[in-house]
Design goal:
about 160 residues, mainly alpha, 6 helices, globular
Length: about 160
């Protein structure tokens, strides 16, 4: 006997969830960041800190794959030296690294305040490292499609 299943359409969730994830992230970085957000919403502060740190760790490896074997500390410093991160972003990245290490290794649990701070730092890092460069590339591509003939105009500004 065949059962006829009604077709349902999901129109909304309750309670509603708004997750603001930076755009154009590599899939694995996005997944780690989402796990951090989910842990944050579930009030699992240590898990959130660990996943936000992992987002940074994997993100820096993707920015400069040749530095994969370096420690996160060294990777961040090298990215700043190479001007792939600004000095301020390097400092922020170290904040994520230190707080994330605390979430994993400290005997005392992370606090809500700690977890929220590391999330904000991580979001800023991901936007700077992945979203903004992608936006610039998309804009340049659109502009190049509109006027590919006049190269001198592009460089003259």
């Amino acid at each position: 006997m065949d059962f006829i299943r009604p077709k349902y359409e999901m129109r909304n969730f309750w309670p509603s969830r708004s997750i603001d994830v930076p755009e154009n992230l590599p899939k694995n970085v996005e997944n780690f960041y989402l796990q951090g957000l989910e842990s944050l919403r579930a009030e699992r502060w240590d898990a959130a800190g660990a996943m936000f740190r992992k987002s940074l760790d994997v993100g820096t490896k993707l920015i400069s794959p040749e530095l994969k074997s370096e420690s996160l500390f060294s990777r961040i410093n090298t990215l700043v030296e190479r001007h792939l991160l600004t000095e301020a972003m390097g400092q922020w990245s170290h904040e994520i690294r230190i707080d994330g290490n605390g979430a994993v290794h400290d005997e005392l649990p992370e606090t809500e305040s700690d977890a929220n701070a590391i999330q904000k730092f991580t979001e800023a890092f991901l936007r700077y490292a992945f979203t903004l460069p992608s936006m610039v590339a998309q804009n340049r591509s659109k502009r190049d499609e509109k006027s590919p003939a006049n190269e001198s105009e592009k460089s003259a500004g």
